[in-house]
Structure to design on (130 residues):
């Protein structure tokens, strides 16, 4: 299967497209993307986010994932190696994705998006007649 060109925010940006996030500090969630003949599957790690504070949006071929952290204050910090920030990431998706049939699952801080390809984009076997 040929490697798919997916544009990822912060790495390459298509001409004329601007990121639409606010100039705040964000963490880019670690993401794996898998392709089959039927669909693309995106797996994003977003620890500390709950379902109610997660926003997944697909508009004009741009997938935006945003998760807000609800930090619990445990007292005055004396020493810190870990800081919390909201998650944000954008991807430009191939045009053959059927956004109407995209499904999302979120469990234990892991977002799994299954994005089916349109019927026209799926490979088809052509019968040879004699």
């Amino acid at each position: 299967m040929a490697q798919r060109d997916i544009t990822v925010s912060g790495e390459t940006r298509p001409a004329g497209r601007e990121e639409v996030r606010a100039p705040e500090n964000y963490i880019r969630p670690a993401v794996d993307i898998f392709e089959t003949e039927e669909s693309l599957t995106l797996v994003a790690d977003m620890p500390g986010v709950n379902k109610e504070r997660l926003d997944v949006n697909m508009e004009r071929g741009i997938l935006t994932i945003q998760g807000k952290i609800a930090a619990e204050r445990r007292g005055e910090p004396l020493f810190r190696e870990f800081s919390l920030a909201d998650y944000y990431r954008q991807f430009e998706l191939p045009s053959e994705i059927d956004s109407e049939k995209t499904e999302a699952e979120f469990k234990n801080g892991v977002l799994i998006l299954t994005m089916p390809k349109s019927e026209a984009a799926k490979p088809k076997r052509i019968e040879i007649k004699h």
